[in-house]
Specification:
- The complex is a heterodimer of chains A (about 110) and B (about 110).
- Chain A is mainly beta.
- Helix content of chain A is about 0%, strand content about 50%.
- In chain A, strands 2, 4, 5, 6, 9, 10 and 11 form a seven-stranded mixed sheet that branches. In chain A, strands 1-3-8-7 form a four-stranded antiparallel sheet, with no helix packed on it.
- Chain B has no helices and eleven strands.
- The model of chain B has no long low-confidence stretch (mean pLDDT about 90).
- In chain B, strand 7 and strand 8 form a beta hairpin.
- Chain B starts with a strand and ends with a strand.
- Chain B is mainly beta and about 110 residues long.
- Chain B is about 0% helix and about 50% strand.
- Classes of the chains: A mainly beta (about 110), B mainly beta (about 110).
């Protein structure tokens, strides 16, 4: 089944404790992206990657890191999480950048205490 | 960052009624997409419009892209409880096909 998977689905952590949210797609997509969703603000793009080893900042990149060492994986790293990073995170992929459908993962609900 | 404003933010209607959701911006977009998101899931693409004035129909849903490519609307005819969800518009700025800007969403509830 073609899909985007994220792990974990739920995470509660404390300020400053490094964490990684994994994202994997099995559709051989070139383009991958991370979003955060907050009430009243919609989805805001954190980082995106047009292909392996090519990443760029989205609208809200502060406090986050990403890497794209393999085509299928695009992990999101929070080196020192803070409470304002409490949010619902979505990973998405599409065939390539441009007017293509984005396929979203199921989301990761992160709470930083 | 180019902004997309959606209205209304919340909409609760009875089954069988018609409704329209709006997505507006002061900026031009090269394309616009509509997604629907259900609780506990990621958004799912409904349609992509790329030409000013374009109208697309998906069963009871009609999507229109404004002539100036600054706005879009989603019209649902004879709404059903299965239409309940969060509707999001997302635009791609000209010359920046790399990023997608999302609106804040319209939460639709269709009561049986």
């Amino acid at each position: 089944e073609a899909q985007v998977t994220q792990n974990p689905r739920y995470l509660i952590t404390v300020t400053g404790k490094k964490l990684t949210v994994t994202c994997s797609q099995n559709m051989n997509h070139e383009y991958m992206s991370w979003y955060r969703q907050d009430p009243g603000l919609g989805l805001r793009q954190i980082y995106y990657s047009m292909n392996v080893e090519v990443t760029d900042k989205g609208d809200v990149p502060e406090g986050y890191k990403v890497s794209r060492k393999e085509k299928r994986n695009f992990p999101l790293i929070l080196e020192s999480p803070s409470p304002n990073q409490t949010s619902l995170y979505f990973c998405a992929s599409s065939l390539r950048w441009g007017v293509y459908e984005q396929f979203f993962g199921p989301g990761t609900r992160l709470t930083v205490l | 960052t180019q902004l997309l404003e959606q209205s209304p933010q919340f909409l609760s209607i009875q089954e069988g009624e018609n409704l329209t959701v709006y997505c507006n911006s002061s900026s031009v977009f090269s394309s616009l997409q509509w997604y629907r998101q259900e609780p506990g899931e990621g958004p799912v693409l409904l349609v992509t419009v790329v030409t000013g004035g374009e109208v697309k129909k998906l069963k009871r849903l009609t999507f229109q892209f404004g002539d100036a490519r600054k706005d879009s609307s989603l019209h649902i005819t004879a709404a059903q409880p299965g239409d309940t969800g969060l509707y999001l518009c997302a635009g791609r700025p000209p010359g920046s096909a790399r990023q997608l800007t999302f609106g804040s969403g319209t939460q639709l509830t269709v009561l049986p």
